[in-house]
Design brief:
five-stranded parallel sheet; Rossmann fold; 19 helices; 4 domains; Helicase, Ruva Protein, domain 3; alpha/beta; single chain; 14 strands
Amino acid sequence: MSSAVKVLIVEDEPHALMGLAELISGWGYRTETAHDGIEGWEKILAWEPAIVVTDLKMPRLDGLGLLARLADSNSSFSANVAVVLLTAQGTIQTAVDAMKLGAYDFLLKPVDATRLRTILANATRQRETTIELEVARRRLRETGLLGSMVGSSRAMREIFSLIEQIAPSNVSVLITGESGTGKELVARTLHDLSPRKQSPFVAVNCAAIPETLIESEIFGHEKGSFTGALERRIGCFELATNGTLLLDELAEMPIGTQAKLLRVLEERKLRRLGARNEIDVDVRVLAATNRDPELAIEQNGLRSDLYYRLNVFHIHLPPLREHLEDVPAMAEAMLREMNSRHNRKVAGLAPSILDRMMAWHWPGNARELRNTIERAVILCPDGAPLDAGHLPPAFGRQQGAAALTNDPSLVPVRVGSTVDAAEKLLILRTLDATGQNKTRAAEILGVSLKTLHNKLKEYSLSRDSQSV
């Protein structure tokens, strides 16, 4: 990676200049040298380096002057040049002030080689991320695509803009929205557009892990720390080292585990279950939930301090029914993906299928759209376009008032019924429709399996009478 990166070294002391050039070129960077700021500026314009390592105090034009010229330049490359200042002990405050003006970092003389190498590597990664973001912005303007996300509606463009702004940082982000709206896709896009993209992206569904195992899953454990712990286990935090961790369905995490999570987020240290020593962790944490976070706090499902710690930025994904104008572009993108996945050659979307799709309210959101497209692609002959005939037989069927009373798949709710009563009836009817399959019922209802279990406890139903 670093072999193509240009580094200009500006230093008025000849021996220091030669030593830095040999050191940095030995790490695989392409180097050029200049003896003062004026010569450095000329070589910046002619050579267009990615990084400038410059002494702060020099004749004719010093490091601050060189930084100021870069800041004032209209050159297309200048905004992406990282400036690293070399400073003596007595000018540290000047270097700190320079960073406020746009310098990337500073180093004390004599130069610590290990520290310099780390700074150059970090500056290289940040520059690559900045360039990729510029490419992503161009692609977004031209096609309405950001990473794997598609949309040209105002709502989606606002989300894309926020993702672009916060992706390069390390801040925590809370992602909310109905089930199937693409919360994990947002998290992956944040990761892919960040300097951490070469490191792991780890997603853990807090609702899918038994309460007795969730701390081991997230934090890890040592051998013998509890019954059944036959060997050391690395938790999700450590698996995501230097990368990104998504805590999906955060509001389903046990309150006690939330307290331990908050401590890890604040101290950047964790202790595996049964361990004596703490481990430093460098992980960007994202969280997602399909519940209203403030309502979850009121219902004691989410700690308020954890919510405020994670909610540095909030991205709310609207349900698909609120931005139906994005359906054609999303369907086209999903069609290309399914053609590739299933080795098919389906030739686009016919107007008849688009008309039906635009008239549907998509209760399952983008996930339902993806499943619909995948089914249609499998049924459609190669070379032909998808049309309405490839949709499920009952897709989008509108029913009249007479049919409503006789359809066993519908739930009749009388005017005057309480919300709790209506909810209970809906849950029990859905369980009946799935043959008491709680996992499938939870998916249809758009809630976690844990939430469904809790509801059934409230209704005093026996666990033994239900089959998972």
